[in-house]
Each structure stands twice: as C-alpha cells, then as structure tokens.
## 1
Amino acid sequence: MSDGTAPVSKVTQNERLALLASGALLLLGCIYAILYCSSAQDISGHSIGTDDAFISYRYARNLVRGDGLVFNPGEHVEGYTNLLYVLLMAIPFALDWNVLWFSVSINCVFTFAAWFLLVRHLRARFGVREAVLGGFLFALSPSIWLWTSSGLETPLVFVLQLSIWLLVDGLEQHPSRRSLACLGAALGVLTLTRADGFVSAGLASAYLLVKGRRREALVAGGAVVVVFGGLLAWRLHYYHDVLPNTYYAKVTSTLARRLKSSVKELGGITARQGLAVYLLAIAYCALSEARRALKAPARALGDLRFGLAFSVCWLGYWLYVGGDNFEDRFLIILIPIGIYLLLGSILAESTERMRGFFVASLVLVQLCVVVRSDQFGKSLKPKYDKWITMGRYLGEHWNHAVLATPGAGKVPFYSDFKTIDMLGLCDAHIGHLKVRNFIPGHSKSDVDYVLSLKPDLMFVTIVDDDLDVSPDLSADKYRSAGFRVRLLLNTTPQSRGSRDVLDVLGRPEQDIALLAREGWDGVVLERAPRAESATTN
C-alpha cells in the first residue's frame, strides 16, 4: 500500500460535482432511513430509532427534571454506556424540542463529517479520482444510513474513531503540535462518549509507542488517563461502582461462549449487511503484512499502518465481548478503513476503468441489502412502532404505575412509569447476576425477583397457546402471583389503527391465544386487585 502523499491537483468541475453528488447521496440515504427504515431486524419494534436510544433519552430527561442521571428517580444505576451523548440529549429537553429529531439531526452532522474527513484523506493520499470513488462507496453504505437514524451515539463514536485513525496516521508521517492536541482531545471525547472508548484510545497510544513516537504516545495516553481517571472517580462517587451496570449485564459467561456467539453473528452480518468486501480487504492486507513480516522482520514494524492495526484489534475486541445485539453498529468503522485499503492497496495497480467497474459492483452489492432486508421500507408508508404505541397507551390510561418489561427504552420513556428492567441494564440486582448462558445484551433475568417487587404491570410477549410469556414465566406462575392478561398489542410491521391495542379483560383464553397467533402477541399483564385475585385463585 502506498503511504506517500499524492500531488494535490486542481479539482475539475466534473470532479467537484461528483464529490458534491456523493455527499448529497449520503444525506439522502440518511434521510430515507430516518423516514422509512427500521434500525434493527425487529422492523416494528425499532421502526422509530432503537429501544436503547430511549434509555439515554430517559436519563437525559430525568437530569433536566432535577432527578439526576438516573433511570428511576432515587435509584443510582448507570444503565447507559454513552455519558457525553446523554448530556447532549439534555439540550432538547431543556429547550423543549423533540429529542428524537434532535438526535438524528446531529447524527446526520456527525456522519457527514466522517464522509468529509475520509474524502479529504483519500484525496491527499491517492488523488481526486480515488476520493470520488471512495466518497460514493461511503455514501452508498446502507449500514451507515441505518445507524445515523438509530438515535444512538453510534455516528459520534464513528467520526471520533475515524478522526483518531487519521490523526495517528498523520502524526506518524508529519508530527505537529496541532495534530497532537487534536488527537488528545479526540481520545478524551471518545472516552467520555462510550464506556469502552478507552479501548480505541489505548490502541492509538500503544501503536504510537510501538512505532517509536514516545512523546506522542505519552501525550495521547496521558489525556486518556486523566479523562478516564476523572470519569472513574465520578462514577464511584455517584453510582458506587467501578464499571457501568451495562458492563455487568452484557459481558458475561465464559470467553468460549462469547466467541461462539460473536463468530456466528459475524458470519450473519457479513452476509446480510454488505460488509463482506471490506472484511475481505482487511483480511487480505493483514495476511500480506504478515507474509512481508516473515520475509523481512526488520521492516515489518515500519510497514505497519494504524488503520490496518486498529481494524484487526477492534474486530478482535468485538469478538471478545461477544458481539452486539444490534449486529454491526460497532463495526461500521471498518467501512472507511476497508475503502482506504481497497483503493490504496488492492486497486492501486488497476486501470481507471477496472477501478470504476469494481467500485460500481461493490455499490450494487451494498445496495442489494436494501432489496433483501425487511429493515428498509418497501413503501412510503408512515412507520408503525409497537413499543412507542404501547408506551403512549399506558401513559394515557394508567397513572403512576410500576412497570416491569425487558425493553427498557421506548415503553418506559413514553409511559413515564417507574420501571423494572427485566434484562438488568438498569437494574443492579439483575445486572450483577452470575449466569452461564450468553445472548448479547439478553443473558440475564430473574423472574422471581421481579415478581417479588410487585409491579402493577408487566409488558412481555406471549410465546405459546398456553399464554406463557417465557420459559421462566408460565401462565400458571404469573396468575399465581396475581396477574391477569389485560392488553394485547399488534406486533406486525403494519399498524391496524385503533385496533393496535386491544383490551381483552374477561375474554376467554382461547380467544386471546387466537389473537396472539394473528399478530397481537405483545401482552400487558395487570396485577389484579387483591380481593379479585384471591377470588380467582
């Protein structure tokens, strides 16, 4: 791969128009995803943002209300992984703006900034034509559109990781105080943005140290240590824990079980999300570097570049923690790095026509995701989001109830009820349980503990004709605890209007089972009044 800087040539009118077109296509793709696509495979439940985004929004809203950075007032549990983003989300609540529109708007800005930085870097390294090709590949990546529309901090993490890659690369070639200051700032901001932001920061510092840039490594590492140390001290004071509760809830079980899950998930992502070519480019370049290192060990360290080293290490970290329940959201940084490796190594010796043909083919492969995946809107109809529908319904028909649910985002946010998070992200007891099984983000539960807290309502899913809602919570068990089926929710991708939520109190069990089979399988269990419950039992 060429590491020299291409001569900066004057941009022609056609090239300028092509660059503008790729930027415009990126923004159009993001807007399309915001308006018509679903940010996860659950195309009804996650039609409008992701469920986890609304956990962050709830923390931000409680902060503005004066309750502090808490999920439930009075309960100090760190159920988010994105402190800086939560603080950003406090802005729309303070100004009485729509939080979701604010979130996706600034996400568009972050995504466009990532595109701009990549295009500028490609132009400086390889020339304008490669920058145009890379810009189009980036702009027509459906995964980037989806995660811009998610309402999560993913685009902010994305642009920070990309900036760190480019800054480290630049410092190695042309060190300067300005670049070093920018790198320290980016590393510090990333450490505050993600609970695992120190991983990327640590990789950057370690790389600079290995490459002999001790001063730069010391400054970069020092910035991370100072920021992370301050964050740790605050966390211990405010939440009385070393790590976020989300870490205990998600990173669990044995390494072997986590790797089995993440390797299987990576195979699915590679097939579904259009990442195959970029992963192959990274693997090809990594193997090429390994072969050169075996032939000439003395030159191996000098030839190594941060983009390749980071992508391999970051993928290894992703596999180590067991992947992610939202599939490729932490892997989209591999898209710009893969583009860079393709243009700078694999296609460097190709003719212009061959490069154009390859890029066009890759764009088609990426856009096939839009055709294959149900996440992408097949019609220009308004989105239906089952979780938001139920949250609003509960908020309108119940007052000050205590809710238990495995989805701690949209339903708690829109109902504004005190909520027991049945998966433990926002519940310290469940989050700290020791378990052997592993499902990314969904490994832990304790039904008996939840029932002992006597919630007024439980929002779960019917799984069979007996009206069981999980292997651990059968119909007999929740009835003996005083609960009855009260509401059914339409969980199909399309709204059924006024029949999305059905009040089925008193209806025969066979009727409820039939409705569940027909798509009303979301269920609200209501704790019956004590006298009525005693009579029923």
Note: Residues 13-33+52-372 form one domain.
## 2
Amino acid sequence: MNRLKRWHMYFTIHELNEKGLKVAQIARKLNISRNTVYKYLNMNPDDFHEFLDEAETRSKKLDPYESRILNWLKEYPDLSSAQVWDWLREQYPDLSVGASTVRSYVRMLRERYGIPKIQPHRDYEAVPDPPMGQQMQVDFGETKMRNVRGVLVKTWFIAFVLAHSRHKFVYWQDRPFVTRDVVEAHEKAFAFFGGMTHEIVYDQDHLLLTSENYGDLILTHEFALYVQKCGFQVRACRRKDPESKGRVENVVKFVKRNFARHRIFTTVDQLNEDCLAWLERTGNALMHHTTKKIPAEVFAIERQTLRPVHQINIHPRMSITRTVRKDNTIWFEGNRYSVPLGTYNGKDKVVGIELSESHLRIYDPETGEWLADHERSHLKGQLIQNTHHRRDRTKGIHAYLESVAGKFSDEPLAMNFLEEIWKRKSRYIRDQLQLIERVLDEFGPSAAEQALHYCMKYRLYGATDFADAVRHFDLRVEKQLPPVELVKPLDASNPDVWKAKPQIRQFEIYADILRGG
C-alpha cells in the first residue's frame, strides 16, 4: 500500500470512529485487522507521518533477496507468493521467514515495479439447451450431517438432471458408491423420470470409466454391460473441465446448500424419503433462475420424449452392504447384528444385507452364502445376536475340570468342589483351576486331600481358600503335628472353667504404670 492510500485509510478509520462505529465494525467494513484499527486510532496525524517515514526507510527482512525475487516475478508473472516462499526456503535453507511476510513483500514488489499477477483466462460461451429427451447429466456429491446425538456422519449421493427441463433426481447412501450401487441408482432415476435420454454425460469417475482413450471411451466392465443392455450413449467430460456438465454441478451445490445443510441424519431410508419430498416441494417446483421456468412443468412435456426403459434385473441382495466389525457384528439402523465367529478376518470384510419388514438377512457377497437371519429391531442401540453365533465358552472347561479333578485321590469329591467353584466364579474359572493346579503340583497329595475335605466341610469354594488350606496342612505334616480334627476342645465336663473371669482393675492402676509408677 502506497503512502497516499495509507493516509486515506488513516482518515477513513478516524471518520468512522467519530460516527460511533466500533473497532470490529470498522475492521469488517474496511477489510483490515482490528489491530490495525487500534494502531491507527492511537496515532495523531504527526505520529502517523513519522510512522510512514519510518516504514519507507526501515529495511525489510527480504531486502537482501529483492533482486532474486524480482527476477522470478518478471520471468514468471503468474508466480504465487506461496511458490516464492517455497523457492526461498529451498535455495536459502538458513532463511527463517513466514509465509505472510513473503506475501506482503511480493505484493509490494508487484505494486512498485508494475508486475500484475497474470490469471489464467478462459472464454466461455452460452450453450443452448439440448432438445427434449436428448441429454441427462450425472454427478456425485458427499457431505456431512449431524445425527440425533450430534455426531457428524458422512453421506454420499448421486444427482441426475435432465439437461432441457432441469428436472432433478437424487439418491443417497450412507457409504461410498460402488459400480453396482451406481447401476441401481440409474434404475431408480429412470423409474422416477419414467424413461431415459439418448445420452448421459458423466465425469471421468473410476466407477464408470477406465480410460478416456482419446475419445474411444473404455468403461468399467460392470458399467459397460449395463450401458449395452440399456442402449444409451455415454459422453464423458474432458479432464479438468467440469464446466461441460455445469447443469448437474449446480444441482450438487443446490442439494448441499438447500437440502442437506443443518439437516439431522437419522437413517439413509428416511434421508431418501425426505429428499424426494424436497424435490417435489422445492428442487423441481421452484422457477429455475436461468430458464425462468418451473422444471416440473417443463418435464411434463419432456417426459413424453424420453425413451422407454428396458427393465434390468438387479439382484436385490447387492443393494446394501456393511463392513464387519472386529467383534463380528455389523451396524445397521443404529443396532448391532451378529455374524458367525470368524467372519471378521482382520481386514475390511464386507457383507450384504437383504431386508424385509420383519427380518434382516446377512450374506457373503463373494460366495452367496447366507450368514445370519435376524428379527429386525426398530429400537436403537440394541445387540441382536443369534445364540449359535456366540462362542461356546464351556468348550474345554469340562475337560479342564476333569483333568484337575483327576489329580485328587477322591476324584468325585474333587469334581463336586470344582463345579461349585465354577458356579460361583464362572468368569474366572480358568484362573481358579490354574491356581489349584499349581498348588497340587507344588505340595504333597496328603495336604491336598485334607484341604479338599476341609474346604467342602466349611463350604469354602475358592482357589485361594484351597491354597491357604493346603499350605496350612502341609506345614502340620512337616512338623508332624496331629491333624486339625484331633485337637481337643475345652473340657466341657468342668463348669468352673466356663465361669472363670479375668480380674478387673481400676483405670488409675494402668495410668500409674504408664507414668512410670
């Protein structure tokens, strides 16, 4: 900014401030930062004059590189400041400078030496609408919506528009499209329009087009079969030329901004229903700003020129797919449905879904094998699980119980003891059996048998209780002490023993002892 423009900015800021505008309002109006407004307001004309003099004489960090940057700008007038910054860092690794500094310096050089930035220019011309029934344009879009919990959910859609009437159709999914989904979307669009056009214009999408091949288009195998059966012509946009299908590009923006923005996502089926209602209410019912006609009214005439559609039988099982989670479940409509153990293979395993009003069936799309059949839940957050999909957690436990019980001399009693532990501590039964097994290997059989009878007698059903008992009895055997059962209780024949009471002393006696008395 030259000196004259800075003075104009200074007086404008003070003038707006005297009119009562706040700093933020001035900054927005003049498209400058609030710090600049504060700085200019705190300076009187003399201070500002000195500030400008210092700014003109003050050396800049990039002054040593001025001639180099100037040569680049003269040789490449379309060079961006970001590229200048990158070249400086490449050729002068020790130079520490920010992108905004380079941007300001490049702007100053362009103004001082009259080097405007050359913008690429392309001439456009208006293209007349094709005849009725001649062309349809197709494009994909994606956007994010918040669900009922406020979490962002990504959604994908494909948009169709008749080039003459601007009549639109949109189909949504909660996962990226695959070629089979695109084919199904075409069938739904043709059913919606009541026919198809002679040609359809596409972007160069990998789902549809393998190569442009200098005009001899090479389609993907599955889409090529569909085109052959339907008999319409395919026209692809040239690379980096989205304007050639500008009608549908505008539809994609219209759908994102008018329909999808701030919409709450519940289910993809509900989203498609809401979108059809929006098309009837708004998308196809309002006057088009270019044609000045209502698409639905023009379509009523264009519909008569559409070609009839030869019904393509699409296997309904391919319409919905889900990725298997590592706990061998899939998410569908806010619920988890189980698949057999082992279906998840550590990769992005995909399964297909076939729906009815009351049931949900899951199958392997690669083999066609049915994996699960569930009752469909209309609640949320449920786990719907077939019992035969669950791991048989008792498998191996019975054998382990028999193995540990076999180490006791009284095997039936040991089995009863271990089964009681299993009932009470089923979650930790393996840990319990491992501890008992270690104790049996460490101590002698005599102590183990005594501990077993002791635990059963006093209903101590736990591995730690058994281990403590084994150690106790093993210590008595080592010291050759009689068993616990042979210890005689107090002689019940002498009642005087029961009546014996300890002597009761006065508290002062204990206090004297503590005082050293």
Note: Confidence is low (pLDDT under 50) at residues 211-218, 313-318.
